Amino acid sequence: MPEEAPYGDKHTLQEKTVSRKRFLASVGAAGAALLAGSILPAEFVEAADQGTTNFTGTVQVNAPATSTTSSMNISRDANYSGGSPGYVNSALYVVDTVRNGVAAYEWGITSVLNNFASAGENVALYGQGNRHGTGPTWAGVFEARDHTQNAGTTGLLGLEVDVFANGLDTNHIRLGIDIVVGKGVAAGSACQAYAGIRLGPVNGDANQGSFQKGLLLTGSVTTGVDVQSNGTYAFRSSGTNNVGLDLSTGTHSDSAIRIKANESIALESTNTIKMKYNSSTQKIEFYNGSNRVGYIDTNGADHAL
């Protein structure tokens, strides 16, 4: 009987030796130099029916990065016709199954960048989707799916972004999420994106789900929303709601709503009927178009209106 390998592997040592040789041969001279000083598991197993090298254990690549090459390079050229829509093929496919009773933290893929450099653009995890055809393209997707069909008492998060530091951000360089728009081709025209952030149900189908709060701010925030852009509307509501703006449950010690002097508040959609405070006359003025139809003198005697 051939000797059995650990981890429940039923393949023989001879099969392991053959698969290990095939793997080392497949990486070539450059790969062999790359893997010098690295730790490869002994239990390489060749899956002949799929033409892949399967193994259990740990692969540890300790090659020093002394040039601009990558420590490990995976290349997949999907050059074929057909296939089944909805069936996913991957250059790298990772499955981490956490069984009941596990108390440790299981993270499917962990990338750690320790940056001691004083220049460059160093990123722990980067995804890039380059569209050269007409097909939809994503640079990254995060999906959290609950299969229990219960509300649950623990978190279900599609994405968590953390910024940990100390002291004040006097240079305004700490950003939780930075959404940038730019040209796809340097010589092309400027890019216009439809939305920086979009919240909605799957494929716009309201039967799929809804949000209790589209945007939720908690904790200590100096400015909840700061609009510094230049455009047509700073805020716009075009949906169907019971209340357009509700400030009734907040505490606003100075003023609930504040606008600059000489700017108006329109009372209908054509901006014809409006009111404003005129700082020159110190009057609250009411207009129908360009015609002033009444005013309140803020320096006048106290009286009923």
UniProtKB/TrEMBL annotation:
PROSITE patterns: TAT. This is Twin-arginine translocation signal domain-containing protein. The lineage of its organism: Bacteria, Bacillati, Bacillota, Bacilli, Bacillales.
